[in-house]
C-alpha cells in the first residue's frame, strides 16, 4: 500500500511524524510519500496530486487551524476542498485538523495534537487492513485525540 | 436491488443495524453492502464508492454530529459533499443525521436516533418499491424520528 | 415541452398541485413528470435525474424548509446543490422554497405557499413561452408570493 | 466580441440598460445577447448558457439581492454558482450585485445601482479591449459605484 | 518555470510587484505572466486561465478583501473558487489575501500587505525549487506577514 502524508508549515506540531510513527508501529514499514505545504487551504490539491500523480491509495491531510474567525473560515474552505478531492478521485483522504483553541494551554494542545494524529493513523490502518474491526466499532462513540464518549 | 449502508464510529448509536432491520421488515432480504468510516466527513466518498465500485442502487449515509459549533460545521461540509456525490452519480443517498443536541437527554436521544434511522429506511423502501405511496404523502408535513406535523 | 415537478413529503402544503394547476391555466396541457422525495436535500439529484433521465426541458423544485437553524442550513445546502445541478445540465431548475417562519400564522403561511408556487409557475411559463415578457419585467422589483415592491 | 448581459425581474432598477449604454459609449456597438431571469439564483445557469450556447466571450450578471438574512444567503449561493460557472467555461462573468440595504434611501440606492452597473461595464471594456489599462490600476483601491478609496 | 501572478484593482497595495520582486531576489529571472482583474471573486477563473491557457506551473492569487461582512463573504467565495480551480487543474494556486481590518492603521496595513506578499513568494520559491526546505519547516508555526509563532 502507498500512503500519502501531507502537512503544513503553519501547524505548531509535527503531526506527520507522529502519524507515520503510529502507522509503522501497527503495520510495519509501508511506502510513504510526504509533502509539506504552507497552510490548510493548500492541502486539497496537494492531496489530490499525491493520489493522481503519486499513486497513493489513501492520504492523511494534517493541519492546525488558528483560533481566529478567519482561521475557522480557512478550515471550512479546506475541509470542503478535501471532500471534493475525495469525490474526484474515489479515494479516502483522512482529515486531521487540530484547532489551536481546542487546548486548555500549549502543553495540553501539544498532547492533543499528537494523540489525534496517532488516533487517525489507527483509523487509516483499520480502513486499509482491518475493515471488519472498524465495522465492529460502528456507533460506539469513538473520538480522536480525546477519550471516547461511548455509545448511548 | 443493491442497498449501500454507510455509518460511522463517531456515532453513539448503531444506526445502520436499525435501518437494515427496518428495511428487512418491509421488503424482506435485500442485497446490502455495509461500510463503516470514522466520521461524517468520510461519508461522501465512501457512499460514492458504494455506488460506483459496489454497484449500489441507493445508499443510506448515517451519522451523529456532535453538539459543538465545530461539529455543526462538519455536518454542513458532509451534507454538501453528500449532495455533490449524488449529483456526480445520479443516485440517491439518503442522509440520516441525528445531532447530539437534539435529544432532551441521552435516553431520548437514543430513541430519536433509532426512530429516525427506521423512518428514513421506510423512505428508502417507498422510493425504491412504492414511489406512488411517497407521492401521495407530498406536502403532508412528514417528519423523521419525531411525530409528523401534518399539512397546514 | 416536458416539465419536471419535484416536491417533498416534508412540506406542509401541496405546492406541486398548485404549480401544475397554474401552468395548465396559462398554457394548457403540457407533459409533466412528477417526483416526490422526503426533503429539500433530496431535490438536487431528483431534479438532475428528471432532466438527464426523464428528458425534462425545465424543472420546478418545491420545498418548505422548517423554522430552525438546522432547517436553514438544509435549505442552504439544497440551494447550492440545485444551482450545481443546473450548471451540470445547462437547464433551469426553478427553486420554490417557502420557509415555515415566513408566515404570520398557519393560514397566512398556507396562502403564501400557494401563491408563491403559482407565481414561480408563471415565471416558468414566461421563461419557456414568453421570454420577451420576462425581459420587459427586468428591474421591476417583482416578488413571488407577496406583492411586488416595484422599481426604485 | 459577443457580450452576454443577464439580469433579473427581482431587481428594482434596470441595471442591464445602464451597463449596455455604458459599454456602447466606450466602444460603440458590440454584439449583445440579453437574458432576464427571475432572481439571482437563476443567474449562474443562465450565464453559462449564454457562454456555451450563445457563444458569448464574456458575461455580466446583474442583480439586486434584498435586505434580509435570507436574501444574503441567496446572494452567497448565487455568487458561488457564478464562480463555478466561470471555472467550468474558462470565461469571465462579471458579477454586479447591489444589495438593497447599501443605500441610505431609495434615491441613493438607485444612483448607486446605476453607477455600479456602469463602473463594472467599464471594467468589462478594459478587460476585453484595454487589459494594460486595468493592469496599471492594480492595487489602486478602485471601487465600483462609490468613490475609489485609493492606494494605502 | 512559468509563474502566473494575478492581482486586483480593488486592492490598496501593489502586492504583485512585491511578490515578483521577492521571487527574483531568490531565484533570478523567471517567466512571469501577469493578469489584473477587478476583485477577488474574479481571481479563480483568471488563475485557471493562466494555468490552462497560459501554461503556468504555479500561480499566485493576490487580493485585499475589504473590512465589512459582505467583503468577508466575497473572500470566502473567492477562496472556495480558488481551491476548486486548483482541484480542476492539479496545480497549486497560492492565495495571498490581506484583509483591510488586519492592520492597526493604514501604515501597518501597508507593511503587512507587502510582507505577506513577499512571504508567500518565498513559499512559492520553496515549493518549486526547494521542497526539502519546506518539509523541514513542517509543524514549525510559520506565519506569513507577521512573526512566526513557532512550534508548541
Can you put this structure into words, describing what you see?
The structure is a homopentamer of 152-residue chains. Chain A is α/β, with parallel strands linked by helices. In chain A, 49% of the residues lie in helices and 16% in strands. A 4-stranded parallel sheet of chain A has the order 2-1-3-4, with helices on both faces. The A-B interface holds A 72, 75-76, 79-80, 82-84, 86-87, 90-95, 99, 120, 123, 127, 131, 134-135, 137-144, 149-152 and B 7-17, 34-38, 41-42, 44-46, 48-49, 52-53, 70, 73-74, 77-78, 80-81, 84-85, 88, 106-107, 109-110, 113.
Supply database-style keywords.
homopentamer; 152 residues; alpha/beta; four-stranded parallel sheet; 5 helices; 4 strands; globular
Helix and strand topology:
The structure is a homopentamer of 152-residue chains.
Chain A (H helix, E strand, L loop, with lengths): L1 E7 L6 H13 L3 E7 L5 H10 L5 E6 L5 H21 L3 E5 L8 H24 L1 H6 L16
Parallel strand pairs in A: 1-2, 1-3, 3-4
